[in-house]
Design brief:
about 190 residues, 5-stranded antiparallel sheet, alpha+beta, 2 helices, single chain
């Protein structure tokens, strides 16, 4: 039975995942089932304490959990779709090329660390490719989009809707940076 205050924030990856009774990789526990909904109730670096609907909790490598969108699309409308994923792919490709060029300049001694940090400030990229599927981070609209090669669909948003409309720029909501790995996952 699900507790009334249980609100899943993540799901376990499709292959399941290792868990530990404490944020210590030397104390393995029972693995979590594939696609199990969990609620992250605490974080320590890359560790996340995952609460299950039955009240049991364990520590996991929080980097591997899959986020669940908090809110459904507004006004009961389907998630936004774009017939052509190529414009967003082009934007991500351009930003990645710009970042790579700055890395090359830093490695060649043409930029110092301060100039590199200055010129990359605010750069946000996100690309995950898995076979025929790709997830892209759309920085302009602060959302993750899923693409099956044919169409682009909003998968998860980083913030609530803005009264300014989706076509206008808004400041990005930066996630906290992990402080270190919890150890190897068996």
């Amino acid at each position: 039975m699900t507790s009334p205050e249980f609100l899943p924030s993540h799901i376990v990856p499709p292959r399941g995942m290792a868990s530990w009774p404490a944020p210590d990789a030397t104390l393995p526990s029972s693995p979590l089932d594939p696609l199990l909904p969990v609620q992250v109730i605490d974080r320590r670096g890359d560790w996340a304490q995952a609460l299950c609907s039955n009240g049991w909790s364990a520590w996991v490598d929080g980097r591997l959990l899959l986020s669940v969108p908090r809110e459904p699309p507004a006004a009961a409308q389907p998630a936004a779709r774009a017939a052509d994923p190529r414009p967003l792919l082009g934007e991500v490709e351009g930003e990645l090329a710009r970042y790579r060029q700055l890395v090359e300049e830093l490695a060649a001694g043409q930029l110092d660390g301060e100039a590199f940090a200055e010129r990359t400030l605010g750069t946000r990229l996100g690309v995950v490719v898995d076979g025929d599927a790709v997830w892209l981070y759309d920085t302009r609209h602060e959302r993750w989009c899923y693409c099956d090669g044919v169409s682009l669909q909003t998968y998860a948003v980083g913030s609530g809707p803005s009264s300014r409309g989706s076509g206008e720029e808004s400041p990005p909501a930066y996630p906290p940076r992990p402080s270190g790995p919890p150890g190897e996952v068996p």
